[in-house]
């Protein structure tokens, strides 16, 4: 019997290599999934039962839930050091008006994180009226702008003082 050697073309060799590569890639993904499944099962087996028991043990009764809700509601109107705790806004006689007008559309944080003069706050109000649908504030606008300009005005700190270069003890890094 005569054994003939078959010669493969370059194209056949390349296809064979690609098929082998894809098969190995698929096999490695399958092995990875099996390992993840085994580890997940082991972790659940080791910790899952105790976690479920602690979750069920720590369930609150309806009375406890209601008591916590009442406590949260009472905190909503708490004021400390002149700051309304729930909103972070400065508490004044006009606070209810400010909270009602401003926080009906956005968070109080948009107020507390900004600083502006009366003109700046008025410009922001105009922008909200022109682009965000804010209604005409009428006589309340002056009260709101005065409050904002008084309590959320720019900090007048200016630049830092110049350095006295002659007085600095310089050293060389070695």
**Radius of gyration (Å):** 35 Å
Helix content: 55-70%
- The percent range for strand residues is under 5%
Q: Record the strand order, biggest sheet.
A: 1-2
* Average pLDDT number: 84
Architecture of the domain at 80-151 in CATH? Orthogonal Bundle
Number of helices: 6
Secondary-structure element pattern, one letter each? HHEEHHHH
CATH class of the domain at 80-151: Mainly Alpha
CATH topology of the domain at 80-151: the name is: Cytochrome Bc1 Complex, Chain D, domain 2
Could you say which overall geometry the principal axes of the C-alpha atoms support? extended
Write the layout of secondary structure elements.
Layout: H1 10-57, H2 62-75, E1 79-80, E2 83-84, H3 95-102, H4 109-112, H5 118-131, H6 140-151
Antiparallel strand pairs: 1-2
Structural write-up:
There is one protein chain. The chain is mostly helical and 174 residues long. Among the domains are: 15-50; 80-151, Orthogonal Bundle (Cytochrome Bc1 Complex, Chain D, domain 2). Helix content is 57%, strand content 2%. It contains six helices and two strands; from the N terminus they run H-H-E-E-H-H-H-H. The chain has helices spanning 10-57, 62-75, 95-102, 109-112, 118-131, 140-151, and strands at residues 79-80, 83-84. Strands 1-2 form a two-stranded antiparallel ribbon. A hairpin with a 2-residue loop joins strand 1 (79-80) and strand 2 (83-84). The longest helix has 48 residues, at 10-57. The mean pLDDT is 84.
